[in-house]
Amino acid sequence: MGNNPSPLWDKLVFNKIKAKLGGRVRFFSSGASPLSPDILDFLKICFGGRVLEGYGMTESSFVISMMDEGDNLSGHVGSPNPACEIKLVDVPEMNYTSDDEPHPRGEICVRGPIIFQGYYKDEAHTKEVLDEDGWLHTGDIGLWLPGGRLKIIDRKKNIFKLAQGEYISPEKIENVYAKCRFISQCFIYGDSLNSSLVAIVSVDQDVLKTWAATEGIKYKDLEQLCNDRTARAAVLSDMDAIGREAQLRGFEFAKAVTLELEPFTMENGLLTLTSKIKRHQAKEYFAKAISNMYAELTTSDTST
């Protein structure tokens, strides 16, 4: 579906959608944050044009990889730019290695004339990402698919340890929980002083209101509903189901959740220009909520 045009559906539906964009769009490209394969395929169908996903960063000055012409497989960022070379470096603490089956996995490292020379007047930071052989260590975890296609699967830079020594990749878990019907945005937090994760969720207000009406829950306003124990339990239960479906490990499940009406935005300082969560700022912004969740978990553990 999406590879073979349907004249009937084009006439009835999709030509009208294409007309909204002027009717002459033939090509879309996507970068910054990944598109889910379902969304990419949906866009192909709706707009009747090519939708290509690419991968790059400021430090590479240009695209590191891009889907090739005629490649109809979704869920990857294409093959390497001819102006650079890419290798995957083992990350043993996250169990990613070049010997992984069925696909080699590791940190994406890039070298070539498109790579920057360093951060301005910041030699220490430069040495953290640019090694002596000129390889840029991106902090992204990738794997090689057949045909030389690169797929981004995780992040290395934001990993942290829990109290029992387990390594956590919060962005991986947030991407899983993004499929939860209640969740508009999600921030996963943990640290080496605690043995479990907690979640701050910017809720989909319409879904939450529909759920409350179905359950017969009365509330004065949405803020009261977000603080309702039953509502929080329902969201956490849905998150658990999504987590099991994605085969998260036991320590990767959030054990408590706080529901927020306010979205994460650049205006409130919680998102970068590329819509990634500013983790340090989010930790400070939600410090009280995080503290309260861990206090509740401690009380719960003590009572049991």
Topology of helices and strands:
Layout: H1 7-20, E1 27-30, H2 37-47, E2 50-56, E3 63-66, E4 79-80, E5 85-89, E6 105-111, H3 123-129, E7 136-145, E8 149-155, E9 160-161, E10 167-168, H4 170-177, E11 183-189, E12 197-203, H5 205-215, H6 222-226, H7 229-245, E13 254-260, H8 279-285, H9 287-303
Parallel strand pairs: 1-2, 12-13
Antiparallel strand pairs: 2-3, 3-4, 5-6, 6-7, 7-8, 9-10, 11-12
CATH H-level superfamily of the largest domain: ANL, N-terminal domain
Low-confidence parts: none
In spatial order, strands of the major sheet run 1-2-3-4
Tell me the Rg in angstroms.
22 Å
Largest sheet: 4 strands, mixed
GO molecular function: ATP binding; long-chain fatty acid-CoA ligase activity
Cofactor: Mg(2+)
Domain AMP-dependent synthetase/ligase: 9-120
GO cellular component, one term: membrane
